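Protein in question kept in full:
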Amino acid sequence: MKDAVGYGVELIPDQSIAILISTGCNESCLRQVQEEIAGEISRLFEHCCGFLPTVGVGSPVSGLIHANRSYIEASAAMEQIGRIRKGEIVYFADLSEWQEGSEWYPIEEQIRLVQSMKQGNNAAAKTALADIMHDLEGKEVSLFYFRCMSFDLINTFLRTMNELKLTIPQEYRSHLAEFTTLKQLNAGMTGLIDLICDYVQANKESKNTAMGAEIFQYIEQHYREYDLSLEKIADHFQMSISYFSRYMKDQTGYTFTEYVTHLPMEEVKRLLKNSDLAIKDIVASVGYADVSNFMRKFKTIEGITLGQYRKLYS
């Protein structure tokens, strides 16, 4: 689209893509621009991949500092898509239309609260809760109606924890079951936000660690193969080439090519020090058919020949 710039990033654990669009259009045409861009992304994805993607669209924001809020809204819209049907485009702004009556607290804040907790975003979840509490404080409704809203909010936490297979610690149960003021209710819910977000973050780190271990184990098992490439590994782990390239650099300090060169070098050095195998057999064992080429590469990197290395360290 003219005068619009897009930035994308892969969200590997979620098997999704986040796209941030910057446009200079005025507020009156923002929804039209959103629809045009979302539709174009959907068509482009179908053309390239053969199927329609599900697309969630957050609210427009005025600057990068608020981009995370829009991302949380888009993620919440994505969840609603899962409950409707695949291939849909859902706008977060439309979700508030499902709300029944103005006496209830804002459903969009409830959605932001849930989505923030599921993403482990502690600050965003507490901001959403604070907005809900502020809204509840200003309600002029009966005590019965007030308690109904409060228990609905409690159920929101219970459903989220149930989805994450988390149990409520005993100390929080009294806060939620026996509260007499909004302050007490808020204290119990704030504690649960900490509990939920800490769990989600730890779970993310555990998954990232496990995925990293799988990747490096795969490379160590296959680095001797002549056709091992950046493209082959990225495809095996369902990543884009650019993401995998950055991941390798971040995790090891090496580019993929440097790392795959580093592994056989280290294995050759280990065998030179700890075995009596002939040098040509050692080189062949790490997948190099061209012994002379490897010997030149080894000397360039280590500064000495393979024979000198063996004499020095064996």
